[in-house]
Design a protein that fits this description.
Number of strands: 9
Strand content: 5-15%
Radius of gyration: 19 Å
Strand order of the largest sheet: 1-4-5-6-7-8-9
Mean pLDDT: 97
Distance between the termini: 33 Å
Low-confidence stretches: none
């Protein structure tokens, strides 16, 4: 469903009570009684799962799977699948400039990208009371998976030409991928660039931000927003280059102080975060989730542009009692105001 996202963002900032926007999709498997493997293999299952989550909890937006293996698989990466964990990339595809130059940019629709695009197309028909965001990986995070995450940092120093050449290719693919989501009705994408969070601010400014900006410049408009996600502990130190990407909204992980981050975000720009998805929503208790949610909201909600969220993707097997406690805490906070 087409939506004026600039107006939606303004309305969110102006609203005294804001709906939470967690990255909540994989725990739909528990509501559906299926496995992660089944969810990632079916556009019907993904769309149905998004709808079930939307019906159960009052999110401000519906966010699709943050599956950071999908795009790498298209480029030839080996993927490890599991019934109860998010898929992961194994090994590397390229390790030299020659291999990068020989690497083909896959067509959008290759691998599971076709399934994920179809899922969003179906989800926007099912969910019309809030924006629907697709999930995509960021340029450096994709390049890092193709080079092997443990080697990517070293290549930035020792093989910068190779890294830049690979980034050019993955950025071209991501632009096409985001445009495909746009064409089927998504209101935007949540772009996960977690690997950039491991870079120094200078390297992030060289190897991440300019490529993210290329994607943003190519796809973002009044009806389609890019939400930039970085869960690294150096995100505050690299905030100038992050803001330079021009993304419409920003989402940060629990490795940083959301209170401190908000001091660097322009007043009219939405920033979201950052309840610990693993430590709290997956492995905490309803009581600890409530306490942490209320703590963060107490520190941050005096900023009208703050929206409470999970710090990253909520893991598949997170107890729904904890997820429900998160939303109950949000309600409790606003009722007391």
């Amino acid at each position: 469903m087409k939506r004026d996202m600039k107006q939606w963002m303004k309305d969110v900032v102006d609203a005294p009570v804001k709906r939470a926007v967690p990255v909540l999709s994989f725990p739909a498997i528990q509501l559906m009684g299926i496995t992660v493997r089944e969810l990632i293999s079916s556009s019907d299952a993904q769309a149905k799962g998004m709808k079930m989550v939307a019906d159960r909890v009052p999110t401000g937006a519906s966010v699709s799977l943050m599956d950071l293996s999908v795009e790498a698989e298209c480029f030839g990466s080996q993927i490890r699948f599991s019934d109860d964990e998010v898929p992961t990339v194994v090994g590397s595809v390229v390790s030299s400039l020659e291999e990068v130059e020989a690497l083909s940019v896959p067509a959008v629709g290759a691998g599971r990208t076709g399934i994920y695009i179809e899922a969003i197309q179906k989800a926007v028909d099912l969910i019309q009371d809030r924006p629907v965001f697709a999930g995509v990986i960021g340029p450096f995070s994709l390049a890092g998976r193709l080079m092997d995450v443990t080697e990517a940092m070293i290549y930035c120093y020792e093989e910068p030409e190779m890294v830049a050449a690979l980034l050019d290719k993955v950025t071209d693919f991501l632009i096409a991928y985001c445009k495909a989501y746009k064409e089927v009705g998504a209101n935007g994408v949540v772009m996960a660039e977690p690997l950039a969070g491991l870079l120094s601010p200078a390297l992030a400014e060289e190897f991440s931000a300019p490529y993210v900006k290329r994607v943003v410049d190519a796809v973002q408009d009044d009806n389609f927003s890019v939400v930039y996600h970085n869960c690294g502990n150096a995100a505050i130190q690299m905030i100038d280059s992050i803001l330079g990407t021009g993304a419409a909204m920003y989402h940060f992980g629990n490795a940083i102080s959301m209170k401190e981050m908000l001091q660097h975000i322009p007043a009219g720009t939405i920033a979201m975060g950052n309840v610990d998805p693993a430590g709290q929503l997956r492995n905490g208790t309803p009581e600890s989730v409530r306490a942490e949610t209320l703590r963060i909201m107490g520190e941050c909600c005096d900023h009208p542009n703050f929206v409470i969220s999970s710090g990253c993707d909520i893991p598949p097997m997170s107890p729904w009692e904890n997820i429900d406690a998160f939303f109950q805490a949000v309600d409790e906070f606003y009722q007391k105001k």
